[in-house]
C-alpha cells in the first residue's frame, strides 16, 4: 500500500516540472476562444458522459467567453488521445480529460508511444471510480476467500476479465495474485460489453471493472478496491479489509501539454476545481456511479507520480515492461 510518506518522497524525487508560483505574472491569463476537451473513449462511454457534463460548468467557471467542446479520440487504451494532446501547443486550447493510466502506465507497456508523464501539465483531478471484483450470479464462490481458495487449489484454472494490460482492473488482479499467493488466467477485452456478456454467462470466473459497469449487471460483488466501504455500492468489503491491501485506484482529471504559462495554468486549475463543485456535474457523476474527487494541480501531480512509480515496479515484476 502506498503511504503518504512514500507519495511525498516520490513527488520530491520526480523531475515532472511544477509551476514556478513565485515567478508567475500577476496579470490575468489570456484564454483561448475555444478549449477542446480530448476524451480517450468513444461517445456514450462513461468518460465521455463525464466530460460532456463537465464542459458547461468549466465554460461558466472561465467566465463564459470561452467555449468548451468535446473531441473523442478513442483507441489503444487511451494512448491515441494522450499522444494527440502531448503534440499540441501549450496554450490551453487542447486539454485531455480522462483516467490516469494512459499517462502513468501505458508508456511502460508501449515505449513507441512517444510520450511520458513528464510531457503533460496536470491541471486538476476531477473524479475517482470504484473498481470491484464480481463473479457470475450462479458462481459457487460466495466470498473472495472461497474464490482464492479454489484458485490456490487449481493454479491458472480460474479466470478474471479486465479491460486490457496495464488497466486498473488488470493491475488489481495481478497484484491480488501476488498478495494471495496464487495464479489466475487473465483475459483482456477490447470491448467492455463482451466482457460483461462473458461474465454473466459464466465464461469468465470473475471480472474486475468499475462499479459503474457492474451496477445493473446482476453479478455478485466480492470486494471493492477502495479506501473504505461505499454506501452507494452496498455492504461490500474492501480488499484491504479482507487482508489484501491492493493499492490501485481509478482516478483522473484534466491534463494539458507541458509548458502552459504559469498564469494560465493557475486560471485553468481554479476553473477546474470550481466546475467539479457544480450541481450539474455532481448530478451526472452520481447517475453514472462515479465519485467527484477534486484535487489541485500539485496534489494531482503527486498522485500521478506515485502511480507511475508503482506501475513501473509491478509491471517490471510481472515481466510486462517492453524495451
Features:
20% strand, 323 residues, 6-stranded mixed beta sheet, alpha/beta, single chain, D-Maltodextrin-Binding Protein, domain 2, disordered N terminus, 2 domains
Structure, explained:
The protein has 323 residues and is α/β, with parallel strands linked by helices. It has 12 helices and 11 strands. The strands form 2 sheets. It has a 6-stranded mixed β-sheet, with helices on both faces. Helix 1 (4-13) crosses helix 12 (297-317) and helix 2 packs across helix 10.
Classified in CATH, the superfamily of the largest domain is Bordetella uptake gene, domain 1
Number of strands: 11
The chain-level mean pLDDT equals: 90
User: Could you say what the CATH topology of the largest domain is called?
Assistant: D-Maltodextrin-Binding Protein, domain 2
Helix content bin: 25-40%
Query: What separation lies between the terminal Cα atoms?
Result: 27 Å
User: Strand share of the residues?
Assistant: 15-25%
What is the molecular shape?
globular
Order of helices and strands: HEHEHEHHEEHEHEHEHEEHHEH
- Overall structural domain count: 2
**Radius of gyration, Cα only, in angstroms?**
20 Å
CATH architecture label of the largest domain: 3-Layer(aba) Sandwich
Biggest sheet record? 6 strands, mixed
Give the neighbour order of strands across the main sheet. 2-1-3-10-4-11
Query: How does the helix and strand content classify structurally?
Result: alpha/beta
CATH class of the largest domain: Alpha Beta
Tally of contiguous helical segments:
12
- The quaternary organization reads as single chain
Unreliable stretches (pLDDT < 50, length at least 5) are 1-15, 17-26
